Amino acid sequence: MAVVDHLVFAARDLTSVVASFEAATGVGPEVGGAHPGLGTRNALVSLGESYLELIGPDPDQDDPPGPRPFGIDDLDESGFVAFAIRPAAGESIESLAEEVRHAGFDPGPIVDMRRRRPDGVELSWRLTLPPTGPTPEVPFLIDWGETPNPSATIARRADIAELRVATPQHSIVSALYAALGLSIQVRSSERPALSVSISGPHGDFGTRP
Q1: Which of 208, 198, 117, 127 shows the shortest CA–CA distance to 156?
Q2: Per the confidence metrics, is the pTM higher than 0.85?
């Protein structure tokens, strides 16, 4: 039913975390672009069928009218904060959202988004906005439609060495993943957390549980 589309690493200083990622792995993230009106910009690393999004405030934008996505304004430290899934070939984001509802979670409304790459190419996609915002344990949904997935437009330079989710809702989250066909390890924890390790030619970046 679903494929992991991308992992989200949020930071208060994007330039610093991009440098840290390259120093740890030997892979230089590519500039993604700005998110107009949201006050953020990103850098990307292809992970094969998925990709890593490093996201932080955009100093070239005015402060947005509301909080920046992924709790960036309130971060105590940088880290993996969320992940997105996309429909499998032949499926729709609407059917995927219905599966999430059947599993007991509200995916939120499906909205249109867009940004422009540094080369001027405009990207457009649709995603869900969970009522309480994205969390480490329950993925938000994304559908790129006719736009090429970013993972396919960046040279593959890194791999997911580890991907685990910790949650106080172990049985419910495990059932959600099973319904969506996601092979992600789940462990019990008092607080939700996303444990990820990205492996590059020079070493790893991230955390392991």
Answers
A1: 198
A2: yes
